[in-house]
UniProtKB/TrEMBL annotation:
The organism of origin for this protein: Pyrobaculum aerophilum (strain ATCC 51768 / DSM 7523 / JCM 9630 / CIP 104966 / NBRC 100827 / IM2)
Substrates-to-products reaction catalysed: tungstate(in) + ATP + H2O = tungstate(out) + ADP + phosphate + H(+)
Protein name per its UniProtKB record: Molybdate/tungstate import ATP-binding protein WtpC
Residues of the full protein shown: 1 to 234 of 306
Subunit structure: The complex is composed of two ATP-binding proteins (WtpC), two transmembrane proteins (WtpB) and a solute-binding protein (WtpA).
Segments forming domain ABC transporter: 3-230
Entry's family note: Belongs to the ABC transporter superfamily. Sulfate/tungstate importer (TC 3.A.1.6) family.
Primary enzyme class: translocase
Enzyme Commission (EC) number: 7.3.2.6
Key words, A-Z: ATP-binding, Cell membrane, Ion transport, Iron, Iron transport, Membrane, Nucleotide-binding, Transport
GO molecular function: ABC-type ferric iron transporter activity; ABC-type tungstate transporter activity; ATP binding; ATP hydrolysis activity; transmembrane transporter activity
């Protein structure tokens, strides 16, 4: 499914995001990078329907989805910190989004188990979140997003809260899950962005300041602010 943002604006006090215009083709993978506080999470939450914009529209597959409830958008989100139910097993956590949508128990647990096996968690389905490593917990939260088979997958700094050794344990699964889906991957780390996507959108102070091939942006930053963010000294 394609994703298009038309004139998205949002403000919080002194901070203002947008207007953001962005078009992502069906099956395209795009990284959104920018310093802390530049509005990346806000943009993601607007796409997911978790934060209403002050103006503009989100089009999913050519249809205005701005007023569509989050769970009806076909959009899955993986956040920085896995939000799992501590009192539910891994399997119950992943089945929950299906059960709460009226899918029968048998089918929900079957589908949850299939997704967990694909994420290399087949042996851990009866554990509780606290019994897992942070990397495994993040894979469970990826499973929770995938169990609804979203066509669009959004990531908000999914590796940031993990110790570097654990990142390599999660990244391949993010890669695998991204295949064949439309993906927006938010990170404050340009290098991480280049692992995920060739197309990189740079956001600073709520505005898109670069959008294009990561190598071209790196070699020819459009402004000194972008150059500084990329780690040049000038
Ligand atoms: P990023 O993800 O790039 O670090 P955010 O989108 O989280 O940036 O935040 C952008 C700005 O909006 C920040 O100044 C932040 O404090 C502010 N902000 C984000 N969410 C809220 C909120 N719910 N209420 C008030 N201010 C917010
Ligand atoms: Mg953020």
């Amino acid at each position: 499914m394609s994703l298009e943002l038309r004139g998205i604006v949002k403000s919080f006090g002194d901070f203002s995001l947008g207007p953001i215009n962005l078009k992502i083709e069906s099956g395209e993978r795009v990284a959104v990078v920018g310093p802390s506080g530049s509005g990346k999470s806000t943009l993601l939450r607007i796409i997911a329907g978790l934060t209403p914009p002050n103006g503009g529209a989100v089009f999913i597959n050519g249809t205005d989805a701005t007023k569509t409830e989050p769970w009806r958008r076909g959009v899955g989100v993986v956040f920085q910190t896995p939000a799992l139910f501590p009192s539910l097993t891994v399997l119950e956590n992943v089945a929950e989004p299906l059960l709460s949508r009226g899918v029968s128990k048998g089918e929900a647990y079957g589908r949850a188990r299939d997704v967990l096996v694909r994420l290399g968690l087949g042996d851990l389905v009866h554990r509780y979140p606290a019994q897992l490593s942070r990397g495994q917990q993040q894979r469970v939260s990826l499973a929770r997003a995938l169990v609804l088979e979203p066509q669009i997958l959004l990531f908000d700094e999914p590796l940031t809260a993990l110790d570097p050794p654990l990142r390599g344990e999660v990244l391949p699964y993010i890669y695998e899950a991204s295949r064949g889906r439309t993906v927006l991957y938010v990170t404050h780390d340009f290098e991480e962005a280049t692992f995920i996507a060739r197309r990189v959108v740079v956001i600073m102070n709520g505005r898109v300041v670069a959008d294009g091939d990561s190598v071209e942006i790196f070699e020819n930053p459009p402004s000194s602010a972008v150059a500084e963010f990329l780690g040049y000294s000038n």
